[in-house]
Amino acid sequence: MSAPRRRRWIDVLRRAAEPASATETPADIDTALWSAHGEAQRAVTEAAEGAPRLMDAVTRQRASVEGVSERAGAMAAHAEGLTLAATRVADLFERLSVIALNAGLEGARTPEPQGKALLLVSEEIRTHAARGADATRDLVAVVEEMAAETSLLRGELTSVLMAADETGGSARTLGDAAVRAGVALVDVEKHLRRATGIDPEVARAVALAAEHARGLLSALSTLRATTPARPLLLGALRPVLTPLSRLLGELGDEGRAGEASPGSPQGDDGGASS
């Protein structure tokens, strides 16, 4: 990194320990731009990773719904077959009732005791045939109701399949949009590099350092208000502050060296006068 750019980031770190100002400097704007770029890149990455998972979930859901729809279709077919069978059974009971009625009439014309026995058997058969026909009609009604419910279920499953197709299409659109947004962010990063002359890793490191600087300043301000804690504070922070002050001094020397570089006219005049 060149000396002027390094000085800009030193200024950012220095301003991190000062109260917030209403005006923004170019370095603050560069940091905000890189921070926004990082957030956008993370969001695009999450969207790009989530779109395939959503498509897989929609595919599994669609397969499950198709299986349920096929089973509902099989149930509807079985219900239709059961309705036909129950209808035939009802017809058989009706015929049996007619036969029993004819047998009763024949028993009424037959002399005793054979006629009476035939009449009693005929009445018993007619009674059971009527009960069987009623039960069969009830069964047919239940099966028809079940078939209607199955038909409604298949309609609902068809709607679910259509919604799954729409969701899958939206997921594919989201994935394509995430890919296009990723490509656009790469272009944005290139333009930001040329406009700011700063690497994104450096920007993130400076932003993190500024955040820690604010936290350190707040903690030191709190501890400074407590007079008895100052000797303990100095002894505890000396191992940390010593390398930190050395590092800041080196950065400051590099900044001043960049300001008084040999290529500048002021540096050449100053060297001649000394």
UniProtKB/TrEMBL annotation:
Residue segments, region Disordered: 251-274
UniProt xrefs under InterPro entries: MCPsignal_dom
Taxon lineage: Bacteria, Pseudomonadati, Myxococcota, Polyangia, Polyangiales
PROSITE patterns recorded: CHEMOTAXIS_TRANSDUC_2 (PS50111)
Keywords of this entry: Transducer
Residues covered by the Methyl-accepting transducer domain: 40-151
Protein name according to UniProt: Methyl-accepting transducer domain-containing protein
